[in-house]
Amino acid sequence: MSETLVRIDDLKVHFPIKSGLLFDRTLGYVYAVDGVSLEIRRGETYGLVGESGCGKSTLGRGLLRLVEPTSGEITFDGVDVRSLKGEQLRLFRRRMQMVFQDPMSSLDPRQSVDSLLVEGLKAHDRHRDKAGVRARLRSTLDSVGLPASALSKYPHEFSGGQRQRIGIARALVLGPELIVADEPVSALDVSIQAQVINLLGDLQESLGLTYLVIAHDLAVVRHISDTIGVMYLGSLVEEAQGDQLYERPLHPYTRALLSAVPIPDPRVEDRRERILLAGDLPSPANPPSGCRFRTRCPWSQPRCTAERPELRIFDDSGQRVACHFTAEILTGELRPHEVRAELVHPDEGRTPEVGSELIVTRTDLPTP
Amino acid sequence: MPLLDVRDLSVVFQRKGAEPVRAADGVSFTVEPGQTVGLVGESGCGKSVTSLAIMGLLPRRGNRVTGEVLFDDTDLLTLRPSDLRDRRGRDIGMIFQDPLSSLNPVIPLGVQVAEVLERHRGRSRQAALREARGLLDAVGIPDPARRLKEFPHQLSGGMRQRALIAIALACKPRLLIADEPTTALDVTIQAQILTLLKELVDDSGTALVMITHDLGVVAGLCDTVNVMYAGKVVERAGRHQLFGEPRHPYTEGLLQSVPRLDVDRGGRLHQIRGSVTDNIPWSAGCAFAPRCDRVIDDCIGDTVPLEPTFRGGALRCTNPVPTEVPA
């Protein structure tokens, strides 16, 4: 169980911000993922939480090389994933699959379920044995709780929850070892969420899968994860085993995040103390110096501006935290102070043109 | 006397060559002055349609709205469009889910806040802008003087939602309808907005109708909660009661199917089987019956009525979850 399947070391994914009509000038970079190191053990679920724009999805995509990392190392079962090229990489992808957030837009509406599932098999040249393929599709559909009659149907004939099941079946059909699930339940209704969460758990048990689950819902992540990493503005700020994070959050951001999650129990809600964060997430194109969280942190000190805290092991529990003043905050030696909200302009960190290199720029346009 | 009294409100969408859709089906609830009332349900249960019908914001064609919406004893459904426009924004404010698409992208924020004051309070542009500055300050937007000249795309999601709240509260309405005001926002920003709403409601005595799918949001904010399913209210109770002792199997199922931060994580989550579309029409019994674990023969047949409970709530169920104290 304790064998490491995935090791990510100082992974960085930076997107260039480009401008210009004739010649692309790079104006700066969006530091989407900026130095993340983590390990995922075989058979466990690693939950990655954070707010929108913190780089958690980019990290997941970077791991599968769906976006090309800028630097850092990825080791999957002893193989250096970043050195794989072309055909090697394509064949390697069979071992790591992805489940996407939106089951509406991630399935081609013009493909039947049959063709959606066979597509992956074809890509890996496993479609020759017709009877074997049939049996495989049936058993995959069965494992995600869909009838075999679903094969001839199209995505629009299914409800949101069923579509997410198809998305999961699509990932499973190649028999992967790692599944990266990017917000697998956030587009679903509450009563359907529970079904999909249970399904993911059952599949892990029966197939021995390893998950990297990316989500913004802390309650969901806590329910399914063995290890949880909290991301803020491109880096991990805290990492702990399961309940440890919720019992003793060490990083000020984790504390604020946990206290902000509404709990469906009025008795708890009435007595809770909230740590309200001032302002918004700073732009990842222009992150604050030192500790990324200092602009919103109620415990921030001068040292936080000057020096970026490393993610280090705090005590015997193995909990890792990136904060200079963990011990002082825990003992209450350091008191929180008032934070003034700083202005954040979404403009300054314009959405990077991910994949812009794929779009052919017409160079014969007249200059205005 | 209640401030808002919704009686038997139904919205039926008619389509050519297809069965009409009963989006809201005889919804009744009241809101007392200063009270916070929640409408909770999953997508497609009719909660947003109910709010749009109350505000008279549904398109004029293709649907039929019946019932009564009494605001101060005036039926909003029978008002002429011009009279309704006088009330909207002045007596009743509304906050929508997606702040980017509900603000006009080509008009500076200040003008968008000020125009409410010009329209309803007869202020001049200059005076309205001065007041708008105070409003933006009150909802916690830093440096409001500069914000006034900026456009919606220059603000973050949380700030846009604050601006929308400022617009809704500009004329100090007696009723505020918030339709999923925090769904598009991150949790830390959601906490900011909910705290702000709670403060504003407490300070000004504005009544609030909170429409959401998130039970956690309701637990901390609402005095009374209406749970909706397939266009009808299935359970109404005070929040302590609803969360402490849910009576309707659907309410109970919803509460048990969300993973919670404050309890030990168990193995499997309770799940409600089927999906939201697996309904039978209300005329043939209880719409939830095909998904219900407590279904009995009596659930199929006639429409199940919404009956008052001895604790002041209401329940639409033939075989409710038993309570500790016998009724």
Question: Which terms would index this structure?
Answer:
heterodimer; A: 368 residues; alpha/beta; eight-stranded mixed β-sheet; 12 helices; globular; disordered C terminus; B: 327 residues; four-stranded antiparallel β-sheet; 11 helices; membrane (chain B); Oligopep_ABC_C (chain B); ABC_transporter-like_CS (chain B); nucleotide-binding (chain B)
What does this protein look like?
The complex is a heterodimer of chains A (368) and B (327). Chain A is an alpha/beta fold. Chain A has helices at 56-63, 86-92, 113-123, 130-143, 160-172, 190-207, 218-224, 242-247, 252-260, 266-271, 302-306, 326-331, and strands at residues 4-19, 25-41, 45-49, 71-76, 79-80, 96-99, 178-182, 210-215, 227-232, 235-241, 312-313, 320-321. Chain A contains 12 helices and 12 strands. In chain A, strands 6-7-8-3-9-10-12-11 form an 8-stranded mixed sheet, sandwiched between helices. A 4-stranded antiparallel sheet of chain A has the order 2-1-4-5. Chain A starts with a strand and ends in a 37-residue tail after the last helix. Mean pLDDT of chain A is 86; it is low at 348-368. Chain B is globular and about 65 Å long. The relative contact order of chain B is 0.13. In chain B, the strands form 2 sheets. Chain B has an 8-stranded mixed sheet with strand order 6-7-8-3-9-10-12-11, sandwiched between helices. A 4-stranded antiparallel sheet of chain B has the order 2-1-4-5, covered by helices on one side. Chain B has 11 helices and 12 strands. The longest helix of chain B is centred in the middle third of the chain and has 18 residues, at 187-204. Classes of the chains: A alpha/beta (368), B alpha/beta (327). The interface between A and B is large, with 55 and 54 residues.
What is the radius of gyration of chain B computed over CA atoms, rounded to a whole number of angstroms?
21 Å
Structural class of chain B: alpha/beta
Physical arrangement of strands within the biggest beta sheet of chain A: 6-7-8-3-9-10-12-11
Counted beta strands of chain B: 12
Q: Round the Cα radius of gyration of chain A to an integer and report it.
A: 22 Å
Largest sheet of chain A: 8 strands, mixed
Order of helices and strands of chain A: EEEHEEHEHHHEHEHEEHHHHEEH
Strand order of the largest sheet of chain B: 6-7-8-3-9-10-12-11
| Biggest sheet details of chain B | 8 strands, mixed
N- to C-terminal separation of chain B? 28 Å
- State the helix count of chain B: 11
What is the H/E order of chain B?
Answer: EEEHEEHEHHHHHEHEHEEHHEE
> Into which percentage range does the β-strand content of chain A fall?
15-25%
Uncertain spans of chain B? none
Number of H/I helices of chain A: 12
Oligomeric status of the shown chains? heterodimer
| Average pLDDT metric of chain B | 89
Main location (chain B): membrane
Membrane topology (chain B): Peripheral membrane protein
Pfam families (chain B): ABC_tran, oligo_HPY
GO molecular function, one term (chain B): ATP binding
